[in-house]
């Protein structure tokens, strides 16, 4: 269909609607809102306890979180606090850590 024909058809439908001869089909889109639970802020000793419970060095823990091992050391010493994705990942690790680590490291040398 040419552009002209599309415009012509659209104009005819608009006139029919205005004159009450045509009803417009309503389109309903349902949107689902997902609400995630808030992450738990971790204290320095909780971060270290989590890392040790998973059997990870600071460097291994840092690699998993995509941060430097210096950053992990600062978190554990209370110099900085984890934020954003790192904090969310630590929250996941605190709840499902051992299984997740096993899954991610299975088959690795």
TrEMBL record:
InterPro entries, alphabetized: Cro/C1-type_HTH, HTH-type_reg/antitoxin, Lambda_DNA-bd_dom_sf
Protein name as it appears in the record: Helix-turn-helix domain-containing protein
GO MF annotation terms: DNA binding
Entry keyword Transcription regulation: yes
Gene3D superfamilies named in the record: lambda repressor-like DNA-binding domains
Domain of life: Bacteria
Species assigned in the record: Fluviispira multicolorata
Membrane found in the keyword field: no
Record domain HTH cro/C1-type: where: 47-100
Keywords: DNA-binding, Transcription, Transcription regulation
């Amino acid at each position: 269909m040419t552009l002209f024909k599309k415009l012509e058809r659209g104009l005819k439908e608009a006139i029919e609607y205005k004159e009450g001869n045509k009803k417009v089909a309503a389109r309903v889109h349902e949107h689902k809102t997902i609400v995630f639970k808030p992450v738990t802020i971790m204290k320095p000793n909780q971060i270290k306890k989590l890392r040790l419970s998973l059997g990870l060095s600071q460097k291994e823990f840092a690699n998993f979180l995509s941060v430097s091992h210096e950053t992990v050391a600062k978190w554990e010493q209370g110099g900085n606090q984890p934020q954003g994705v790192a904090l969310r990942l630590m929250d996941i690790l605190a709840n499902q850590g051992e299984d997740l680590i096993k899954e991610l490291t299975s088959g690795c040398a």
